[in-house]
Input
Amino acid sequence: MTGNKYCVIMAGGIGTRFWPMSRQSRPKQFLDILGTGKSFIRHTFERFEKLIPAENFLVVTNRRYKELVLEHLPELRPEQILCEPAGRNTAPCIAYAAYTLLKRDPEAEMVVTPSDHLILNEEDFRAIIRECMDFAAANDALMTVGIKPTRPETGYGYIQVSDDSRISKVKCFTEKPDLELARTFLQCGEFFWNSGIFIWKVRTIVEAFERYLPEHHALFSGVMRAAGTDAERNIVEMAFAECRAISIDYGIMEKADNVYVRCGEFGWSDVGTWGSVYQHARKDRYANAAPAEGCYLYDTRSSIVSLPKGKIAAISGLKEYIVVDTEDVLMICPRAEEQNIKKFIDEVKYNDGEAHI
Amino acid sequence: MTGNKYCVIMAGGIGTRFWPMSRQSRPKQFLDILGTGKSFIRHTFERFEKLIPAENFLVVTNRRYKELVLEHLPELRPEQILCEPAGRNTAPCIAYAAYTLLKRDPEAEMVVTPSDHLILNEEDFRAIIRECMDFAAANDALMTVGIKPTRPETGYGYIQVSDDSRISKVKCFTEKPDLELARTFLQCGEFFWNSGIFIWKVRTIVEAFERYLPEHHALFSGVMRAAGTDAERNIVEMAFAECRAISIDYGIMEKADNVYVRCGEFGWSDVGTWGSVYQHARKDRYANAAPAEGCYLYDTRSSIVSLPKGKIAAISGLKEYIVVDTEDVLMICPRAEEQNIKKFIDEVKYNDGEAHI
Output
């Protein structure tokens, strides 16, 4: 029954918000920022492995992370890693996976998922994914999963539902509203956070590419035809060089009329900021999220501390700080100022080059 | 003329106040805490080398630091390092050196100096030392050097002079007065900080040992007789095991009646605290004492930052902090709380053992 069900993990991100813990050479999806014992990509794999057999996974990532993916997911064969020569947002990433699957199994049904999100209630989550898979199998539907919002977040995309059904047609997508609009969305009850998880038959999404992103359809049809031949690498290179960088939301989901959403609550977070890490981390009685061993805190409260393995810290007198120590970089920053991390990176990169980025 | 002039550097200290920068394995005298390019012991050697030839130096240190001393002072031969099996305060340390010199050269004149102090005005300092050496050569005097106090310091010993002469007889020694007394001393004008630098003929100090510390005289006379024989190591071991731990100030200087002091000003500091390091370090326009390269400070003022070679730091929002990062330990502490470092060390030692101490 699961033979034609596939899971595509998008793992090409190179975020900078968790610098210096995340690096270009080891971005967030390969880290265990919350100290759970497993990386985000490993959690993602295990979450879906209960629904879809390991041999039916594809991971789309940047070429430089191929070995890292195989290290974190040793169940996968190298052929299951699709390497992007360059990041071009989600539409090319998904096209690459969809056309690859189309060649392998025209009846394929696929789930697409980010690799670096947190999901606390996995049972509920899987029940929802199952529902979506059933719906997408029975209908020519482009399915997405919505999250009931808990705050007027301005950094997310929102999905407006058209009715109260468990699975509702989508009325509208809105990217990153301003605070006022986000507050209205929260009160209104019709708006849900876009989880970036998609479920559809390969045929359905390929038809959508053909119609809404014909340029991508042409390029990745070419990739499909070249798959397994000597020309493959060059064709992929060319497709990514030529194709427009565009998100699947903007390129297809906002335009298509067969878009559906299943909304739910299952303890979701994109863990996109240190604030969100702090929120989800285990804290001591002074509200510090710090290593249980080797980290001595005095007169320190509501702070996050991350240390390299085996390193000792004695920290006194910090309130609401982020302290991230790594082999080659130490960062100390008030939690309220974490948006400045980007500025730190720019300055370090300008003066010291890429080595510490 | 300098053939019978000797310099004894006391380098056995194992301070903890600069942890985690200083370690049991590399205490302060081997560090360059102020970023001058040379360790304290190296500066001490070079300061006296202009007065006394390298072959006339002795360094008394703990056995475990012998190699470190030779590394910092490659001009010395291994025989010039006297190894203490255990620290027993300054009287046994000085006795070991004095009786060693007595055997080698009964006419020896010696200067004894700590290894980890800062002296800014070396010209003036050497002029004073020369004066003291001349005086000690001509008189049976136990000479010490006093420093004009600049604040009511409660951590130092004070020397009271008996008159205004350049070289005055000492009226009284007072160890670590309380704040009220220290304020009185500062106002009075008769009290000077005890620099821990001594100048005397070997004969004079040996006579003083014989009279005031006869037990030490007996033990270190034994060491002297055994010097150069197979029994030497055992006899030294026994002398240090049996002798009372006592300072030269308390054991001899406070009791003898031929004690003189030459007071002066030459930019002296024992650099005994981070506060004192901060005071003497080069600071940027926000009053931060931090590495000139690789240390990015934002909204940070009046702080000290020390990093391992090659490490990058991005630090935001700290006012008056000490940040010391080393390979295996990170310490962050408000400058006003540096007395707590001892507490940190105790707790780390209790939980993690000696490895990080």
Notes: Chain B has a mean pLDDT of 95.
